[in-house]
Design brief:
The protein has 264 residues and is mainly α. The chain has two domains: 162 residues, no CATH class; 79 residues, no CATH class. The protein is built from eleven helices and no strands. Helix 2 packs antiparallel against helix 4 and helix 9 packs across helix 10. The two termini are 30 Å apart.
Amino acid sequence: MPDIVDKVRAGVSERADLPGMSLIQHLEELRRRIIHSLAYIAVAFCVAYWQHERIYGFMQAPIVNALRKHHLDTQLVYHNPIDAFNLYLKISFVGGVILASPFVLYQVWLFISPGLYQHEKRYVVPFMTATVGLFLAGAWFGYHYVFAGALDFLLGYGSQFKPLIEINEYTSLFQTVILGLGIVFELPILVFFLALFGIVSANFMWRNIRYAILIIFIIAAIITPTPDVLSMCVFASPMLVLYVLSIGVAYMVHPTRRKRLKEA
């Protein structure tokens, strides 16, 4: 813990010569970025709602394929007449947030960029590309492998019963798995910023890899929709790979290494 505190202080002092902003200016800048982000989300929500049936058809495909594979009725159900309308609003909002995420991330970058050196601002393109790419990679992995496999296992496990799958419960499960894996795949981005400001280092992450493995399997056990160990390992495997990748990211961008390269 003292090492982390010292690194934070070093990162703060290292940026002491950057142009400062008052608290009011920071709040005004934050308000501007939030307003712009909300505007992007509102526009993206309208676009997503325009295609809400197609979006839900994409979301429904895994359960329909699994039900068809087990020779079951593929039509989902709802209990309240307003459920379908609320569901379309919900998935349109989530779809809008995902669609607007590159623009929102750019607003985040604009907010934090005044605290970076000029040579550090060149990370904006890799930051945007990696953030969106990693999220989509996690969502794709969850959609095509984890979620589809989990549904097949669960329906096969309960084959002696007739399933009555409710649209809201199915959608919540879908979003938990897909969005959860998409967010988990952002681990290298988080480590990038922590290492950039000198808060963590590659040596620190490598020394504590045993604890990281434990935490990864705990997270995998929480977000895995099935109770079997195999599914938990399927969830944990990409997270372990991402953690090792993050060690390399931390080594590349840590201030100590950048300082040695500059002096060389």
